[in-house]
Amino acid sequence: MNARKDFDRTGMPSEAPQDEPARQQYFIEKCRQYTKRFFEKKGRVPTAFIQTFGCQMNAHDSERLMGVLLAAGFARGDGEDSDFVLYNTCTVRENANQRVYGRLGHLNSLKKKNPDMLIALCGCMMQEPHVVERLRKSYRHVDIIFGTHNIYKLAELLYRRMEERSMVIDVWENTGEIVEALPGDRKFPFKSGVNIMFGCNNFCSYCIVPYVRGRERSRAPDDIVREIRELVKDGVVEVMLLGQNVNSYGKTLTPPVSFAELLKRVEGIEGLKRIRFMTPHPKDLSDELIEVMSRSDTICRHMHLPLQSGSSRILKKMNRNYTKEQYLALTEKLRRAIPDISLTTDIIVGFPGETEEDFEETLDVVRKARFDSAFTFIYSRRTGTAAAAMDGQVPDDVVKRRFDRLLKEVQEISAGVCGRDVHTVRKVLAEERDSHLDGWLTGRLSNNTIVHFAGGQELIGTIVDVYLEESRGFYYMGSLRENKMEVTDHEKAL
Predict the structure, then answer these.
(1) What confidence tens digit (pLDDT) does each residue in 202-237 have?
(2) How far is residue 461's CA from residue 483's CA, in Å, rounded to a whole number?
(3) Is the peptide bond before 323 cis (omega within 30 degrees of 0)?
(4) What share of residues in the chain are helix, strand, coil (percent, to 5)?
(5) Are 464 and 455 in contact (CB under 8 A)?
(6) Which of 59, 137, 255, 338 has the highest local Cβ count within 10 Å?
Protein backbone atom coordinates (compact mmCIF):
# COMPACT_ATOMS: atom_id res chain seq x y z
CA MET A 1 0.00 0.00 0.00
CA ASN A 2 1.12 3.55 -0.68
CA ALA A 3 2.00 5.65 2.33
CA ARG A 4 0.14 8.63 0.81
CA LYS A 5 -3.68 8.59 0.76
CA ASP A 6 -5.91 10.95 -1.25
CA PHE A 7 -9.06 12.30 0.43
CA ASP A 8 -12.23 13.75 -1.06
CA ARG A 9 -14.04 16.86 0.18
CA THR A 10 -15.76 14.97 3.02
CA GLY A 11 -12.43 13.88 4.47
CA MET A 12 -12.92 10.28 3.28
CA PRO A 13 -10.29 8.40 1.27
CA SER A 14 -11.01 8.85 -2.44
CA GLU A 15 -10.78 5.07 -2.90
CA ALA A 16 -12.07 2.27 -0.70
CA PRO A 17 -9.41 0.68 1.54
CA GLN A 18 -8.66 -2.97 0.85
CA ASP A 19 -8.33 -4.03 4.49
CA GLU A 20 -11.32 -4.90 6.67
CA PRO A 21 -13.10 -3.53 8.59
CA ALA A 22 -11.82 -0.14 7.31
CA ARG A 23 -13.29 -0.93 3.88
CA GLN A 24 -16.79 -1.38 5.30
CA GLN A 25 -16.48 1.78 7.41
CA TYR A 26 -15.72 3.58 4.15
CA PHE A 27 -18.90 2.26 2.53
CA ILE A 28 -20.97 3.02 5.64
CA GLU A 29 -19.96 6.67 5.17
CA LYS A 30 -20.80 6.43 1.46
CA CYS A 31 -24.27 5.13 2.35
CA ARG A 32 -24.71 8.02 4.78
CA GLN A 33 -24.47 10.34 1.79
CA TYR A 34 -27.39 8.43 0.24
CA THR A 35 -29.52 8.65 3.39
CA LYS A 36 -28.73 12.36 3.61
CA ARG A 37 -29.94 12.91 0.04
CA PHE A 38 -33.04 10.86 0.84
CA PHE A 39 -33.79 13.18 3.76
CA GLU A 40 -33.26 16.29 1.63
CA LYS A 41 -35.62 14.90 -1.01
CA LYS A 42 -38.41 13.53 1.21
CA GLY A 43 -38.00 15.39 4.49
CA ARG A 44 -37.61 12.23 6.53
CA VAL A 45 -34.96 9.64 7.36
CA PRO A 46 -35.21 6.36 5.38
CA THR A 47 -36.33 3.39 7.46
CA ALA A 48 -34.90 -0.13 7.57
CA PHE A 49 -36.51 -3.39 8.71
CA ILE A 50 -34.94 -6.85 9.12
CA GLN A 51 -37.00 -10.05 9.31
CA THR A 52 -34.99 -12.95 10.75
CA PHE A 53 -35.71 -16.59 10.01
CA GLY A 54 -33.86 -19.43 11.72
CA CYS A 55 -31.42 -19.91 14.57
CA GLN A 56 -29.69 -17.79 17.22
CA MET A 57 -26.74 -17.25 14.89
CA ASN A 58 -29.07 -15.70 12.33
CA ALA A 59 -30.57 -13.50 15.04
CA HIS A 60 -27.11 -12.34 16.07
CA ASP A 61 -26.18 -11.71 12.43
CA SER A 62 -29.31 -9.56 12.11
CA GLU A 63 -28.23 -7.43 15.07
CA ARG A 64 -24.94 -6.76 13.30
CA LEU A 65 -26.71 -6.01 10.02
CA MET A 66 -29.06 -3.55 11.71
CA GLY A 67 -26.09 -1.92 13.42
CA VAL A 68 -24.54 -1.26 10.00
CA LEU A 69 -27.79 0.21 8.67
CA LEU A 70 -28.22 2.51 11.67
CA ALA A 71 -24.60 3.65 11.30
CA ALA A 72 -25.35 4.34 7.62
CA GLY A 73 -28.10 6.79 8.58
CA PHE A 74 -31.24 4.64 8.44
CA ALA A 75 -33.87 4.71 11.18
CA ARG A 76 -35.42 1.53 12.51
CA GLY A 77 -38.61 0.68 10.63
CA ASP A 78 -41.67 -1.00 12.11
CA GLY A 79 -42.35 -3.51 9.33
CA GLU A 80 -42.26 -4.47 5.69
CA ASP A 81 -43.48 -1.06 4.50
CA SER A 82 -40.03 0.33 5.36
CA ASP A 83 -37.73 1.86 2.74
CA PHE A 84 -35.17 -0.94 3.08
CA VAL A 85 -36.33 -4.47 3.89
CA LEU A 86 -33.88 -7.31 4.50
CA TYR A 87 -34.79 -10.96 4.99
CA ASN A 88 -32.10 -12.96 6.82
CA THR A 89 -33.07 -16.45 5.71
CA CYS A 90 -32.89 -20.02 6.97
CA THR A 91 -32.93 -23.15 4.81
CA VAL A 92 -32.89 -25.96 7.37
CA ARG A 93 -36.48 -26.86 6.42
CA GLU A 94 -38.35 -26.52 3.15
CA ASN A 95 -41.21 -24.53 4.68
CA ALA A 96 -38.73 -21.79 5.65
CA ASN A 97 -37.94 -21.30 1.96
CA GLN A 98 -41.61 -21.22 1.01
CA ARG A 99 -42.33 -18.56 3.63
CA VAL A 100 -39.69 -16.32 2.08
CA TYR A 101 -41.05 -16.74 -1.44
CA GLY A 102 -44.52 -15.92 -0.13
CA ARG A 103 -43.34 -12.75 1.60
CA LEU A 104 -41.48 -11.63 -1.53
CA GLY A 105 -44.75 -11.54 -3.43
CA HIS A 106 -46.16 -9.19 -0.81
CA LEU A 107 -43.05 -6.99 -0.97
CA ASN A 108 -43.48 -6.63 -4.73
CA SER A 109 -46.86 -4.97 -4.21
CA LEU A 110 -45.37 -2.64 -1.58
CA LYS A 111 -42.50 -1.69 -3.88
CA LYS A 112 -44.93 -0.66 -6.60
CA LYS A 113 -46.36 1.88 -4.16
CA ASN A 114 -42.87 3.00 -3.06
CA PRO A 115 -40.51 2.82 -6.08
CA ASP A 116 -37.55 3.94 -3.92
CA MET A 117 -37.92 0.85 -1.72
CA LEU A 118 -34.94 -1.52 -1.62
CA ILE A 119 -35.23 -5.26 -0.89
CA ALA A 120 -32.34 -7.50 0.18
CA LEU A 121 -31.97 -11.19 0.95
CA CYS A 122 -29.13 -12.86 2.82
CA GLY A 123 -28.42 -15.92 4.94
CA CYS A 124 -28.41 -19.68 4.45
CA MET A 125 -31.11 -19.89 1.78
CA MET A 126 -28.99 -17.71 -0.50
CA GLN A 127 -26.16 -20.27 -0.45
CA GLU A 128 -28.25 -22.64 -2.58
CA PRO A 129 -27.51 -21.99 -6.29
CA HIS A 130 -31.00 -23.01 -7.45
CA VAL A 131 -32.53 -20.47 -5.07
CA VAL A 132 -30.39 -17.64 -6.40
CA GLU A 133 -31.22 -18.63 -9.99
CA ARG A 134 -34.96 -18.62 -9.22
CA LEU A 135 -34.67 -15.19 -7.61
CA ARG A 136 -32.67 -13.86 -10.56
CA LYS A 137 -35.33 -15.00 -13.03
CA SER A 138 -38.62 -14.61 -11.20
CA TYR A 139 -38.10 -12.01 -8.46
CA ARG A 140 -36.52 -9.11 -10.29
CA HIS A 141 -37.81 -6.66 -7.67
CA VAL A 142 -35.15 -7.97 -5.24
CA ASP A 143 -32.20 -5.56 -5.18
CA ILE A 144 -29.43 -7.31 -3.21
CA ILE A 145 -28.65 -11.00 -2.67
CA PHE A 146 -25.77 -12.20 -0.48
CA GLY A 147 -25.00 -15.26 1.62
CA THR A 148 -23.62 -16.34 4.97
CA HIS A 149 -19.92 -15.76 4.40
CA ASN A 150 -19.99 -12.05 3.59
CA ILE A 151 -22.74 -10.51 5.68
CA TYR A 152 -20.21 -7.94 6.86
CA LYS A 153 -20.29 -6.49 3.29
CA LEU A 154 -23.84 -5.13 3.57
CA ALA A 155 -22.82 -1.44 3.31
CA GLU A 156 -20.60 -2.13 0.29
CA LEU A 157 -23.32 -4.07 -1.50
CA LEU A 158 -25.94 -1.44 -0.67
CA TYR A 159 -23.74 1.32 -2.06
CA ARG A 160 -23.07 -0.76 -5.16
CA ARG A 161 -26.84 -1.15 -5.72
CA MET A 162 -27.33 2.61 -5.37
CA GLU A 163 -24.61 3.26 -7.95
CA GLU A 164 -25.41 0.51 -10.46
CA ARG A 165 -29.22 0.64 -10.08
CA SER A 166 -29.53 -3.07 -10.89
CA MET A 167 -29.75 -6.34 -8.94
CA VAL A 168 -26.55 -7.07 -7.00
CA ILE A 169 -25.68 -10.73 -6.32
CA ASP A 170 -22.63 -11.55 -4.20
CA VAL A 171 -22.67 -15.10 -2.82
CA TRP A 172 -19.44 -16.82 -1.79
CA GLU A 173 -19.00 -20.57 -1.77
CA ASN A 174 -16.72 -20.42 1.26
CA THR A 175 -14.30 -18.18 3.13
CA GLY A 176 -11.59 -18.35 5.74
CA GLU A 177 -12.03 -14.67 6.63
CA ILE A 178 -13.65 -13.52 9.87
CA VAL A 179 -14.69 -9.85 10.07
CA GLU A 180 -16.38 -8.96 13.35
CA ALA A 181 -15.43 -5.37 14.29
CA LEU A 182 -18.49 -3.62 12.84
CA PRO A 183 -21.41 -1.77 14.46
CA GLY A 184 -24.05 -3.85 16.20
CA ASP A 185 -27.55 -3.22 17.48
CA ARG A 186 -28.47 -5.49 20.38
CA LYS A 187 -32.11 -6.31 21.02
CA PHE A 188 -31.34 -6.33 24.75
CA PRO A 189 -28.72 -3.90 26.11
CA PHE A 190 -27.86 -6.29 28.96
CA LYS A 191 -27.29 -9.52 27.02
CA SER A 192 -25.68 -10.43 23.75
CA GLY A 193 -24.76 -13.28 21.46
CA VAL A 194 -21.08 -13.74 20.66
CA ASN A 195 -19.90 -15.81 17.71
CA ILE A 196 -17.05 -18.10 18.72
CA MET A 197 -16.93 -20.18 15.53
CA PHE A 198 -18.53 -20.54 12.13
CA GLY A 199 -19.45 -23.50 9.96
CA CYS A 200 -19.75 -27.21 10.70
CA ASN A 201 -17.74 -30.35 9.87
CA ASN A 202 -20.25 -32.96 11.02
CA PHE A 203 -22.29 -33.54 7.83
CA CYS A 204 -25.29 -35.13 9.50
CA SER A 205 -27.07 -36.81 6.61
CA TYR A 206 -30.29 -34.75 6.96
CA CYS A 207 -28.60 -31.37 7.43
CA ILE A 208 -27.76 -28.76 4.82
CA VAL A 209 -25.92 -26.44 7.25
CA PRO A 210 -22.33 -27.56 6.39
CA TYR A 211 -23.08 -26.83 2.74
CA VAL A 212 -24.43 -23.32 3.37
CA ARG A 213 -22.32 -22.28 6.38
CA GLY A 214 -19.06 -23.88 5.24
CA ARG A 215 -16.41 -25.76 7.17
CA GLU A 216 -15.56 -25.05 10.80
CA ARG A 217 -13.39 -22.06 11.61
CA SER A 218 -12.90 -20.79 15.15
CA ARG A 219 -12.21 -17.27 16.32
CA ALA A 220 -9.10 -16.68 18.40
CA PRO A 221 -9.87 -16.85 22.14
CA ASP A 222 -8.20 -13.49 22.78
CA ASP A 223 -10.54 -11.85 20.25
CA ILE A 224 -13.57 -13.44 21.90
CA VAL A 225 -12.50 -12.38 25.39
CA ARG A 226 -11.74 -8.87 24.16
CA GLU A 227 -15.20 -8.57 22.58
CA ILE A 228 -16.95 -9.80 25.73
CA ARG A 229 -14.96 -7.38 27.93
CA GLU A 230 -16.16 -4.52 25.72
CA LEU A 231 -19.74 -5.79 25.95
CA VAL A 232 -19.53 -5.92 29.75
CA LYS A 233 -18.24 -2.34 29.79
CA ASP A 234 -21.34 -1.47 27.74
CA GLY A 235 -23.69 -3.01 30.32
CA VAL A 236 -23.95 -6.64 29.23
CA VAL A 237 -24.34 -9.14 32.10
CA GLU A 238 -25.12 -12.29 30.07
CA VAL A 239 -23.54 -13.65 26.90
CA MET A 240 -24.56 -16.52 24.64
CA LEU A 241 -21.55 -18.16 22.97
CA LEU A 242 -22.68 -19.20 19.49
CA GLY A 243 -21.53 -21.90 17.08
CA GLN A 244 -23.01 -24.72 15.02
CA ASN A 245 -21.12 -27.14 17.29
CA VAL A 246 -19.49 -25.28 20.18
CA ASN A 247 -18.02 -28.50 21.58
CA SER A 248 -15.63 -28.68 18.64
CA TYR A 249 -14.47 -25.08 19.15
CA GLY A 250 -10.75 -24.50 18.78
CA LYS A 251 -9.80 -27.61 16.81
CA THR A 252 -8.81 -25.45 13.81
CA LEU A 253 -6.67 -23.09 15.91
CA THR A 254 -2.88 -23.30 16.27
CA PRO A 255 -2.33 -24.38 18.96
CA PRO A 256 -5.78 -25.95 19.55
CA VAL A 257 -7.93 -24.58 22.39
CA SER A 258 -10.77 -26.62 23.88
CA PHE A 259 -14.24 -25.20 24.44
CA ALA A 260 -13.84 -25.90 28.17
CA GLU A 261 -10.65 -23.81 28.21
CA LEU A 262 -12.45 -20.97 26.41
CA LEU A 263 -15.23 -21.09 29.02
CA LYS A 264 -12.67 -20.79 31.81
CA ARG A 265 -11.18 -17.70 30.15
CA VAL A 266 -14.60 -16.11 29.66
CA GLU A 267 -15.52 -16.95 33.26
CA GLY A 268 -12.67 -14.74 34.43
CA ILE A 269 -14.13 -11.56 32.92
CA GLU A 270 -15.04 -9.24 35.77
CA GLY A 271 -18.64 -8.06 35.74
CA LEU A 272 -20.00 -10.91 33.60
CA LYS A 273 -22.80 -12.64 35.50
CA ARG A 274 -24.02 -15.38 33.16
CA ILE A 275 -22.61 -17.49 30.32
CA ARG A 276 -24.79 -19.54 27.99
CA PHE A 277 -23.83 -21.46 24.86
CA MET A 278 -25.54 -22.95 21.83
CA THR A 279 -25.30 -25.59 20.37
CA PRO A 280 -23.21 -28.54 21.65
CA HIS A 281 -23.00 -31.92 19.90
CA PRO A 282 -23.22 -35.06 22.07
CA LYS A 283 -20.28 -36.77 20.36
CA ASP A 284 -17.90 -33.97 21.40
CA LEU A 285 -19.18 -33.32 24.95
CA SER A 286 -16.06 -33.78 27.09
CA ASP A 287 -15.58 -34.65 30.75
CA GLU A 288 -13.50 -31.47 30.98
CA LEU A 289 -16.49 -29.37 29.94
CA ILE A 290 -18.79 -31.08 32.46
CA GLU A 291 -16.24 -30.47 35.23
CA VAL A 292 -15.87 -26.79 34.32
CA MET A 293 -19.66 -26.37 34.35
CA SER A 294 -20.05 -28.17 37.67
CA ARG A 295 -17.59 -25.82 39.41
CA SER A 296 -18.85 -22.60 37.86
CA ASP A 297 -21.13 -19.99 39.37
CA THR A 298 -21.30 -18.14 36.05
CA ILE A 299 -22.07 -20.83 33.45
CA CYS A 300 -25.82 -21.32 33.34
CA ARG A 301 -27.37 -24.59 34.48
CA HIS A 302 -28.74 -25.41 31.05
CA MET A 303 -27.57 -27.80 28.35
CA HIS A 304 -29.29 -28.06 24.99
CA LEU A 305 -28.17 -31.48 23.79
CA PRO A 306 -29.76 -32.48 20.45
CA LEU A 307 -30.88 -36.12 20.40
CA GLN A 308 -32.51 -36.23 16.92
CA SER A 309 -33.49 -39.91 17.33
CA GLY A 310 -33.51 -42.52 20.09
CA SER A 311 -32.79 -45.37 17.70
CA SER A 312 -29.12 -46.30 17.35
CA ARG A 313 -29.90 -47.64 13.87
CA ILE A 314 -31.39 -44.31 12.76
CA LEU A 315 -28.63 -42.34 14.49
CA LYS A 316 -26.10 -44.25 12.37
CA LYS A 317 -28.04 -43.38 9.21
CA MET A 318 -28.09 -39.77 10.39
CA ASN A 319 -24.27 -39.86 10.79
CA ARG A 320 -24.59 -38.63 14.39
CA ASN A 321 -21.67 -40.76 15.68
CA TYR A 322 -23.21 -41.85 18.98
CA THR A 323 -25.70 -44.52 20.07
CA LYS A 324 -28.84 -44.40 22.17
CA GLU A 325 -26.93 -45.91 25.09
CA GLN A 326 -24.09 -43.39 24.81
CA TYR A 327 -26.55 -40.50 24.76
CA LEU A 328 -28.37 -41.74 27.87
CA ALA A 329 -25.05 -42.32 29.66
CA LEU A 330 -24.14 -38.72 28.86
CA THR A 331 -27.38 -37.35 30.35
CA GLU A 332 -26.79 -39.40 33.49
CA LYS A 333 -23.22 -38.13 33.78
CA LEU A 334 -24.43 -34.53 33.43
CA ARG A 335 -27.07 -34.97 36.12
CA ARG A 336 -24.64 -36.60 38.53
CA ALA A 337 -22.16 -33.76 38.15
CA ILE A 338 -24.76 -30.94 37.94
CA PRO A 339 -27.93 -32.11 39.74
CA ASP A 340 -29.87 -28.91 39.02
CA ILE A 341 -29.09 -28.84 35.28
CA SER A 342 -31.89 -28.32 32.79
CA LEU A 343 -31.67 -30.57 29.72
CA THR A 344 -33.39 -29.64 26.48
CA THR A 345 -33.13 -31.28 23.08
CA ASP A 346 -34.09 -31.51 19.40
CA ILE A 347 -35.90 -34.54 17.95
CA ILE A 348 -36.69 -35.39 14.34
CA VAL A 349 -39.68 -37.60 13.49
CA GLY A 350 -40.01 -39.45 10.21
CA PHE A 351 -36.39 -39.79 9.12
CA PRO A 352 -36.10 -42.09 6.05
CA GLY A 353 -36.41 -45.73 7.08
CA GLU A 354 -37.80 -44.98 10.56
CA THR A 355 -39.95 -47.90 11.72
CA GLU A 356 -42.42 -48.07 14.57
CA GLU A 357 -39.73 -49.82 16.60
CA ASP A 358 -37.29 -46.99 15.91
CA PHE A 359 -39.88 -44.46 16.99
CA GLU A 360 -40.55 -46.39 20.21
CA GLU A 361 -36.81 -46.17 20.95
CA THR A 362 -37.11 -42.38 20.71
CA LEU A 363 -40.04 -42.39 23.14
CA ASP A 364 -37.97 -44.56 25.48
CA VAL A 365 -35.16 -41.98 25.55
CA VAL A 366 -37.65 -39.18 26.19
CA ARG A 367 -39.06 -41.08 29.18
CA LYS A 368 -35.62 -41.89 30.60
CA ALA A 369 -33.90 -38.55 29.94
CA ARG A 370 -36.92 -36.51 31.14
CA PHE A 371 -36.12 -33.36 29.21
CA ASP A 372 -37.21 -29.96 30.48
CA SER A 373 -38.37 -29.28 26.94
CA ALA A 374 -37.82 -30.55 23.41
CA PHE A 375 -38.04 -28.96 20.00
CA THR A 376 -39.77 -31.57 17.87
CA PHE A 377 -39.59 -31.51 14.08
CA ILE A 378 -40.99 -33.47 11.19
CA TYR A 379 -38.16 -34.56 8.90
CA SER A 380 -37.72 -32.10 6.03
CA ARG A 381 -36.19 -33.46 2.84
CA ARG A 382 -33.41 -31.09 1.76
CA THR A 383 -31.99 -31.39 -1.75
CA GLY A 384 -28.24 -31.92 -1.66
CA THR A 385 -28.16 -33.89 1.58
CA ALA A 386 -27.43 -37.61 1.79
CA ALA A 387 -30.80 -38.34 3.42
CA ALA A 388 -32.73 -36.84 0.49
CA ALA A 389 -31.64 -39.77 -1.69
CA MET A 390 -32.35 -42.48 0.89
CA ASP A 391 -35.03 -45.12 0.38
CA GLY A 392 -37.86 -45.51 2.85
CA GLN A 393 -39.29 -41.99 3.00
CA VAL A 394 -42.01 -42.30 5.67
CA PRO A 395 -45.63 -41.56 4.59
CA ASP A 396 -46.95 -38.20 5.80
CA ASP A 397 -49.90 -39.65 7.71
CA VAL A 398 -47.61 -42.00 9.66
CA VAL A 399 -45.19 -39.16 10.47
CA LYS A 400 -48.03 -36.94 11.66
CA ARG A 401 -49.37 -39.59 14.06
CA ARG A 402 -45.90 -40.23 15.48
CA PHE A 403 -45.23 -36.51 15.82
CA ASP A 404 -48.45 -36.00 17.81
CA ARG A 405 -47.60 -38.93 20.12
CA LEU A 406 -44.09 -37.58 20.72
CA LEU A 407 -45.34 -34.08 21.41
CA LYS A 408 -47.85 -35.36 23.95
CA GLU A 409 -45.16 -37.40 25.74
CA VAL A 410 -42.71 -34.48 25.80
CA GLN A 411 -45.29 -32.02 27.12
CA GLU A 412 -46.49 -34.32 29.91
CA ILE A 413 -42.95 -34.96 31.14
CA SER A 414 -41.82 -31.34 30.73
CA ALA A 415 -44.77 -30.00 32.72
CA GLY A 416 -43.63 -31.98 35.75
CA VAL A 417 -39.88 -31.49 35.34
CA CYS A 418 -40.06 -27.72 34.88
CA GLY A 419 -41.93 -27.24 38.15
CA ARG A 420 -39.25 -28.78 40.38
CA ASP A 421 -38.15 -25.40 41.82
CA VAL A 422 -41.61 -24.23 42.90
CA HIS A 423 -41.75 -22.68 46.42
CA THR A 424 -38.05 -21.76 46.37
CA VAL A 425 -36.21 -18.48 45.92
CA ARG A 426 -34.16 -18.31 42.71
CA LYS A 427 -32.12 -15.70 40.90
CA VAL A 428 -33.85 -14.30 37.82
CA LEU A 429 -32.49 -12.02 35.12
CA ALA A 430 -35.30 -9.51 34.52
CA GLU A 431 -35.48 -9.20 30.73
CA GLU A 432 -38.55 -7.18 29.70
CA ARG A 433 -41.97 -5.91 30.65
CA ASP A 434 -44.59 -8.63 30.70
CA SER A 435 -46.69 -8.40 27.54
CA HIS A 436 -49.88 -9.56 29.31
CA LEU A 437 -49.77 -8.09 32.83
CA ASP A 438 -49.28 -4.40 33.60
CA GLY A 439 -46.64 -3.78 36.26
CA TRP A 440 -45.11 -7.22 35.77
CA LEU A 441 -41.78 -8.35 34.34
CA THR A 442 -40.60 -11.45 32.51
CA GLY A 443 -37.21 -13.01 33.22
CA ARG A 444 -35.25 -16.25 33.12
CA LEU A 445 -33.68 -18.58 35.63
CA SER A 446 -30.17 -19.86 35.09
CA ASN A 447 -31.76 -23.06 33.73
CA ASN A 448 -33.58 -20.94 31.10
CA THR A 449 -37.10 -21.35 32.54
CA ILE A 450 -39.28 -18.24 32.21
CA VAL A 451 -40.57 -16.45 35.31
CA HIS A 452 -43.28 -13.77 35.51
CA PHE A 453 -43.28 -11.49 38.55
CA ALA A 454 -44.45 -8.05 39.63
CA GLY A 455 -41.76 -5.38 39.47
CA GLY A 456 -40.76 -2.01 38.10
CA GLN A 457 -39.04 -1.63 34.75
CA GLU A 458 -35.97 -0.16 36.47
CA LEU A 459 -35.13 -3.79 37.36
CA ILE A 460 -34.79 -4.80 33.69
CA GLY A 461 -31.24 -5.97 33.04
CA THR A 462 -30.57 -6.86 36.68
CA ILE A 463 -30.52 -10.21 38.47
CA VAL A 464 -33.04 -10.31 41.32
CA ASP A 465 -34.24 -12.86 43.88
CA VAL A 466 -37.73 -14.16 43.10
CA TYR A 467 -39.90 -16.55 45.10
CA LEU A 468 -41.44 -19.07 42.69
CA GLU A 469 -45.02 -19.23 43.93
CA GLU A 470 -46.66 -21.33 41.24
CA SER A 471 -45.56 -23.57 38.38
CA ARG A 472 -47.70 -23.44 35.27
CA GLY A 473 -46.00 -26.22 33.36
CA PHE A 474 -43.43 -24.33 31.35
CA TYR A 475 -43.11 -21.13 33.37
CA TYR A 476 -43.44 -19.81 36.91
CA MET A 477 -45.49 -17.08 38.53
CA GLY A 478 -43.35 -15.49 41.23
CA SER A 479 -42.93 -12.57 43.59
CA LEU A 480 -39.95 -10.31 44.06
CA ARG A 481 -37.98 -11.09 47.22
CA GLU A 482 -36.34 -7.82 48.21
CA ASN A 483 -35.31 -9.27 51.57
CA LYS A 484 -34.04 -12.84 51.39
CA MET A 485 -34.87 -13.38 55.07
CA GLU A 486 -38.54 -12.57 54.55
CA VAL A 487 -40.63 -15.76 54.86
CA THR A 488 -44.17 -16.15 53.55
CA ASP A 489 -46.95 -17.94 55.42
CA HIS A 490 -46.90 -20.60 52.74
CA GLU A 491 -43.18 -21.23 53.29
CA LYS A 492 -43.70 -21.52 57.04
CA ALA A 493 -46.25 -24.26 56.42
CA LEU A 494 -43.85 -26.27 54.26
Answers:
(1) 999 999 888 888 889 999 999 999 999 999 999 999
(2) 19
(3) no
(4) 40, 20, 40
(5) yes
(6) 338
